[in-house]
Design brief:
The chain contains nine helices and twelve strands. The chain is of the alpha/beta class. The protein has two domains: 3-100 and 257-287, Leucine Dehydrogenase, chain A, domain 1 (Rossmann fold); 103-252, NAD(P)-binding Rossmann-like Domain (Rossmann fold, 3-Layer(aba) Sandwich), CATH 3.40.50. Helix 1 (17-27) packs across helix 8. Bound molecules: NADP nicotinamide-adenine-dinucleotide phosphate. The site of NADP nicotinamide-adenine-dinucleotide phosphate has 28 residues, from helix 4, helix 5 and helix 8. NADP nicotinamide-adenine-dinucleotide phosphate binds at residues 63-64, 66, 102, 105, 127-132, 151-153, 156, 200-203, 205, 210, 230-232, 253, 256-257, 260.
């Protein structure tokens, strides 16, 4: 009898996780299937409870449930609890534990793909959902000097800024954090002296209502900055196309997706993830090539 791991989210049509996770499971010749468990909001509790059934080993959690799953779990590890978002559920002794591997995946891709050192830099984060929370805490831990959070719903950006400020006040970390309304994205001033912009919204995602959209216009994107779009499908996203035209350096979400997925694989399997195979599988399905 095969065992199962699932991806919980809604909708899931854009997701490529099942392809590269299955490639990793097949590499070890495991009789385990990684499936997309598309789950409407009303079904979330039921889908999470189903992980307790013996054939299921765990799950990834994606948009829009990374925050909503926390109360449905038996425990949440310290880092995921601090971030307030879970993207991986592992079953241990019949107990469901939540982890966050997005922060790790984000930083790993930043270092490996761009050799970008956040320490002492200034960044603008678009979004304040689960992914933005992971990215912001990761950058604060890496001693970024300033973070500006811009979100459509300003209260959510304020709440994230408050969490980050209370975290830094309990530690020796000194990041300056502020929140701005969405309209500030149309002003150059928002990006003055910053070296990194990270899109943590769904804008630009293939098959979504925001397909073909960019959160920024070309006029406000500074030259020689790094624009990192967490959206990985399509490649390149509308934002990255504009950023490239503006003379910026660009990074898409694919490498982060694979690194966070590799960390999830290790939590479920207790084995080293075959990262190269996962990267190759993800690039093949998304870009159609071997690169
Ligand atoms: P989430 O918790 O649902 O948050 C969604 C964010 O997008 C919120 O900030 C939301 O703003 C914003 N948003 C949605 N529609 C918008 C619109 N029409 N205009 C402006 N802002 C809008 O989702 P998430 O888990 O943080 O994921 C966010 C994105 O990151 C997704 O595209 C996801 O695929 C991507 N991601 C990629 C990776 C990777 O490994 N590459 C990992 C994690 C996430 P409001 O607060 O105003 O609703």
């Amino acid at each position: 009898m095969p065992k199962f791991i699932g991806l919980i989210g809604y909708p899931l049509k854009h997701s490529i996780s099942p392809y590269f996770q299955q490639a990793a499971l097949d590499y070890y010749q495991l009789d385990i299937r990684y499936d997309a468990w598309e789950t409407s909001p009303e079904e979330l509790e039921f889908t999470v409870a189903k992980i307790r059934e013996p054939q299921n080993l765990g799950a990834n959690v994606t948009v829009p449930y990374k925050e909503a799953v926390l109360p449905l779990l038996d425990e949440v590890d310290d880092w995921a609890n601090l971030i307030g978002a879970v993207n991986t559920i592992a079953k241990r002794d019949d107990r469901l534990t939540g982890f966050n591997t997005d922060a790790y995946g984000f930083i790993e891709a930043l270092y490996k793909e761009k050799h970008f050192e956040p320490k002492g830099k200034r960044a603008v984060i678009l979004g304040a959902g689960g992914a933005a929370r992971a990215v912001s805490f990761a950058l604060v831990q890496k001693k970024i000097s300033s973070l500006t959070i811009v979100n459509r719903t300003l209260e959510r950006a304020n709440a994230l800024a408050d969490s980050l400020n209370s975290y830094t006040s309990d530690t020796s970390l000194k990041t300056k954090v502020n929140a701005l309304p969405w309209q500030s994205l149309s002003s150059h001033k928002t990006f003055n002296h910053c070296q990194l912009i990270v899109n943590c919204t769904i804008i630009g995602t293939k098959y979504s209502s925001q397909e073909g959209q960019s959160p920024l216009s070309i006029e406000v994107i500074p030259r020689d900055i790094l624009v990192y779009d967490l959206v990985y499908n399509p490649w390149p996203t509308p934002l990255l196309q504009l950023a490239q035209k503006a003379g910026a350096n660009i990074l898409g979400g694919l490498a982060m997706l694979v690194y966070q997925g590799a960390a999830s694989f290790e939590l479920w399997m207790g084995k080293e993830a075959p990262v190269d195979i996962m990267l190759k599988g993800a690039r093949k399905i998304l870009i159609g090539g071997e690169e």
